[in-house]
C-alpha cells in the first residue's frame, strides 16, 4: 500500500487481514499463459470501492491518490460478474455469526423491501414506479438473520410487488441456506408468498405493527431489517439508484455489508461522514 493520508473508509491492517487472503486466493487462480499474475494493489482497489460507496462520488471523481476509474471499475465489475463479492461476503458473514456464538447458517430470516429513487441516467427498462409509495426507481429486497447480517439481496424495478420480490428472495435463501425454517415479514407480503414459503418448508409469519402506542415503536423481529436498511443509508452510493445495472446495485449492497462486517469482526468504528 502506497504512502498516503488515510481516508475514513480505508480498511485497517486488521480488516485487510480478513479480506486480503480471499483476494490473494482469487488472484492466484488468474495466472496468465505466460505465468504472470496481476500487479495491481488490490487493497487500494478495495479502498477505492469503499470510498465511492461511502461518499457517493461519481467514478470520474475518485481521488487521484486512489486507483484510477478504469482500474477500479474493472475489478468492481469483474468481482461482481464472477461472484467473488458474494463469496467473500458470505464467508465473512459466517465468521461474524461464529464470533457471536451462532451456527454458520441461520435458521430464520427477516424480509423487507425498500423503494429507492433512480437517477436520470438509469435505464428506464430496469426501473418502474412503486404505486404505493409513489417512488420511481428500483426496489431493494433484503433478507437478514437475527444478527442483522444480510443473507440475500435482490434489486428489481420498483413496480415489482413485494410478493414477487419476497418469492425471489426466499428462492435465493433456500438455495444457499437450506437451514432456514422461518421467515418474518410485514403485512405487505400476501398469501401467495406464504404458500411459496410453505412449499419450501419455511414457516412465514406476518408481524403486524401496533398503532395503539404513540411515537416510534420498534416492531418485534422486523426492526432488525429496518436497522440494516438504515445502516446501508450511511453509504451514500445507496441512498439513490445510480447504477445502470441492477447487478451493480446488488454488488454495492454487498460491499457496504462487508464494510460493516469487518468492523464488527475487528471491533472498530469508521467515523461517520456527518
From TrEMBL:
InterPro entries: IS402-like_dom (IPR025161), Transposase_11 (IPR002559)
Superkingdom assignment: Bacteria
Record key words, sorted: Membrane, Transmembrane, Transmembrane helix
Coiled coil: none
Pfam families, per database record: DDE_Tnp_1, DUF4096
All residue ranges annotated as the Transposase IS4-like domain in the record: 105-241
Limits of the Insertion element IS402-like domain: 11-89
Name of the protein in its database record: DDE transposase
